[in-house]
Amino acid sequence: MSFSIAVVGAAGRMGQAIVAAARERGVSVAATADAGDDVAAAVAAADVTVDFSHHTATRSVLEAAVKLGKAVVIGTTGHAPESRDQLRALARETRTVWAGNFSVGVNLLFHLVGRAAKALPEGFDVEIVEMHHRFKKDAPSGTAVRLAEVVLEGLGLGPDALVHGREGVPGERPAREVGMHALRGGDVVGDHTVVFAALGERVELTHKASNRAIFARGAVHAAQWLLDRPNGLYDMQDVLGLHEKTGPGTAAAP
Ligand code: NAD
């Protein structure tokens, strides 16, 4: 099926990878926009807008897409929790895929971590460790935030159980706690590990990205998948058919 995309954040690392992935797949890039450009004009010029820019751009991308009836793929991370619900409501008014991570492997990791969190008996402590390049602006990564949501849901815990880093004398680790740790350095594209540690044994589920083309290819694939969907908010689990039981267009992530 022939279609065109607009790329928002086009001058950035991911923006450039998206343009390359589109070319690789024979998808035309009808418009590009970066900071200071007219985002609405870019949205108007293509069938699907792919936004990997900055969290402050998401609202204007979604507003333009809703107004113009265009589809959107959002990969940008770092949105404040209090703005996420409003953005999700806006995203449901058009066709949107919004995912903290567009790689096939990470979406499989979400699936496996959810299964493990539900299956493991009490006595396993869960910690999430992520590492990214020194240029990354937000922490923890959108993927780690999603992994935490999956773990908390699987364990039946609320958001207050999540602890970011530890320092001083926090005391012995409570059982119903999930630890989150963000490492930054060098040119690491993206590593995520979920550790399930008990007395005497430990399970670790890890994904390592070595090339950001995986996210770009996933985003272009999601753009094509969206073309003939009804309005709704979807995630990459929908695109890949990995959801166990949710209905179409009801994704909560990221
Ligand atoms: P980057 O800093 O290299 O690029 C961001 C680009 O967006 C820059 O060119 C910047 O000028 C531009 N920009 C900033 N504000 C803008 C605005 N208001 N309108 C339009 N453009 C604007 O960053 P990056 O490594 O390319 O990552 C971009 C985003 O994508 C980040 O939020 C990152 O976390 C996210 N990301 C998501 C995934 C995923 O799979 N979902 C994968 C990698 C990165």
Q: What would you say this structure looks like, in words?
A:
The protein is built from eight helices and eleven strands. Helix content is 36%, strand content 24%. It has a six-stranded parallel β-sheet, with helices on both faces. The chain has a five-stranded mixed β-sheet with strand order 7-8-6-9-10, covered by helices on one side. Helix 3 links the parallel strand 3 and strand 4 (71-74). It has helices spanning 13-25, 39-45, 58-68, 81-91, 104-119, 142-155, 213-226, 236-240; strands at 4-8, 28-33, 48-51, 71-74, 95-98, 125-132, 162-164, 178-184, 190-198, 201-209, 232-234. The chain has 254 residues and is of the alpha/beta class. It is elongated and about 55 Å long. The protein has two domains: 4-102 and 212-239, 3-Layer(aba) Sandwich (Rossmann fold); 104-209, 2-Layer Sandwich (Dihydrodipicolinate Reductase, domain 2). The mean pLDDT is 94. It binds nicotinamide-adenine-dinucleotide. The site of nicotinamide-adenine-dinucleotide has 27 residues, from helix 1. Residues 8-9, 11-15, 33-35, 39, 52-54, 56-57, 75-78, 99-102, 142, 212, 215 line the site of nicotinamide-adenine-dinucleotide.
